[in-house]
Design brief:
This protein is α+β, with helices and mostly antiparallel strands. It has one domain (about 15-530). Helix content is about 35%, strand content about 15%.
Length: about 525
């Protein structure tokens, strides 16, 4: 139960449909789509397109997408992998021969072919009720007419202003005479509006072929990229089979690799070995979460990649034997040392959207350009801001995540879904790059182990252990309460560079016929219901 004497948000409650996003305009558009006869996938795509305009630092048509869809609460969940691929000429040897040891963020080599638009079109065509043109209309209007900058967007722009100044088109689009805009400043993206209109008129082909693709390829090749028109024309996501584990009498579903959803399940499997209770933010409980995360992320950075091109030991990662082994290593008296050093880029931002409609179709939907404002590179005539997902690739020969022609990098963005007794009860997701796998486990533990409502679980202060280190980023309230004790146990405690993650979730109460939703205060968004 919420304490009304403390700052916070109330749960959203409704009957006929609900949407939760990280931007209020996107949430409102999602509800408008439901009222216009669209279903949950229609609403999610329309909301995402809006966020590609108003929250461009977190997502865009130049990024990637993953989705989980339950039809009327059924557990035969549809999963879609809309992550893009490396150019056909991108071989590990090409980079090593030229002296690359890593892929720089502000580089064309960090740009894989964007998969989001293809994913939207496929999901809407196969599972939606409205046309893609109808769903893009709100985003087109907002991009043309303008939108005010919200607080979190203004904050992210301020942190990325130096990056954006390096690209004339990005600077002109997002900065005000070279400076980051204030809250309430009006922005417009007319070039992006025209690109979205082209997609509305010509479908997915208008993005991956023709003048839009030509402008994107010319920009990337002009900077030294290996992209071709053929790479863009060959873009195709795929339906995949969800993976799952059981946690406290609930089944948790994730998309399979190349995403890190399997690592969220591994963390849950480790935590399931312990009797968890008492204070949700007690030192012992947080110690277990930290160590389970450190162990699971070390496994991630050793084993994960594109399963089509590298053998991913999924059965081993989800095995009882591995969970038993990792749980046995956790000593509440001291930090585990050493943990394998990761081979991965740091990354922070994404948007997550969840919608449940009147028929209880439930969508868990995530779209990202990786780091805030991605690569910082923008296609000049199309207004497409490119992500930097290729930064996740390894350049180590033989690594499962080594860059290769047509290969998808290891992905951090992961939609989640929970079922109980044969029906889906909660689509959910957590934003924040590397944090997401831990974030899934942390959030679910607070809901399923401690009985917190969705909003209360999101409102708790957070921490995140930086992979491969003993350093734990902690929000201020935790540094004050458990920071000293965890320091005594051997962890290095420090403040985060910015708020840790974000989250949205909707609980389907089948018995009462109501929906309960939450949206993270670390972002600008909200959960609203019909």
């Amino acid at each position: 139960m919420r304490d009304f004497e403390r700052p916070g948000r109330s749960l959203a409650v409704g009957r006929h449909g609900m949407a939760a996003t990280s931007h209020p305009t996107a949430t409102l558009v999602a509800l408008d789509i439901l009222k216009a006869g669209g279903n949950a996938i229609d609403a999610a795509v329309a909301a995402c397109a809006v966020q590609c305009v108003v929250e461009a630092g977190s997502t865009g048509v130049g990024g990637d997408c993953f989705a989980l869809l339950s039809r009327a609460g059924a557990t035969d969940i549809v999963a879609y992998n809309g992550s893009g691929r490396a150019p056909a000429a991108a071989t590990g040897d090409w980079y090593r021969e030229r002296g690359f040891t890593a892929i720089d963020r502000n580089s064309p080599h960090a740009v894989t072919v964007p998969g989001a638009v293809e994913a939207w079109a496929r999901l809407v065509a196969d599972h939606g009720r409205l046309t893609l043109a109808e769903l893009l209309r709100p985003a087109i209007e907002i991009a043309r007419e303008g939108y005010p900058v919200t607080p979190r967007v203004a904050h992210d722009l301020a942190t990325q202003a130096d990056l954006l100044r390096k690209d004339p088109t990005a600077a002109q689009t997002f900065l005000a005479e070279g400076a980051s805009p204030a809250v309430g400043a009006l922005q417009r993206q007319p070039a992006l509006a025209e690109t979205l209109q082209a997609i509305a008129d010509g479908g997915v082909e208008a993005f991956y072929r023709g003048s839009v693709a030509q402008d994107m390829v010319e920009r990337l090749r002009g900077l030294g990229g290996l992209h071709t028109l053929e790479d863009f024309a060959a873009t195709a996501g795929e339906y995949v089979t969800p993976i799952s584990t059981n946690y406290r009498d609930h089944t948790v579903y994730e998309c399979p690799p190349n995403g890190q959803g399997i690592i969220a399940l591994l963390i849950l499997n480790i935590l399931a070995r312990f009797d968890i209770g008492g204070d949700p933010l007690g030192a012992d409980n947080l110690h277990r979460e930290i160590e389970a995360t450190r162990l699971a992320y070390a496994a991630r950075d050793r084993f994960l990649g594109d399963p089509r091109m590298a053998g991913i030991a999924a059965d081993h990662l989800l095995s009882d034997a591995l969970a038993d082994d990792f749980a046995a290593r956790i000593d509440l008296g001291r930090v585990i040392d050493p943990i394998a050093v990761p081979d991965a880029a740091e990354h922070k931002d994404t948007v997550y959207i969840t919608v449940v409609d009147a028929e209880r179709n439930a969508v868990s939907f995530i779209n990202s350009i990786f780091t805030p404002y991605g690569s910082g590179l923008m296609s000049p005539r199309t207004g497409v801001l490119f992500h930097n997902r290729g930064q996740s690739f390894s350049l180590k020969k033989g690594h499962p995540n080594e860059i290769a022609p047509g290969k998808r990098p290891m992905h951090t963005i992961i939609p989640g879904m929970v079922a109980r007794e044969g029906r889906v009860v909660m689509p959910f997701g957590v934003m924040g790059g590397q944090y997401q796998a831990m974030g899934h486990a942390h959030f679910l533990s607070k809901v399923l182990d401690f009985g917190l409502d969705l909003q209360s679980a999101m409102d708790l202060p957070r921490l995140f252990p930086l992979p491969g280190t003993k350093t734990v980023e902690m929000e201020a309230r935790l540094r004050e309460t458990v920071g000293p004790e965890l320091t005594r146990r051997g962890f290095t405690v420090q403040p985060p560079n910015w708020a840790i993650g974000g989250a949205q979730a909707i609980w389907i109460d089948w018995e009462r016929g109501v929906l309960l939703g939450g949206s993270d205060h670390r972002k600008d968004g909200c959960a609203l219901a019909l």
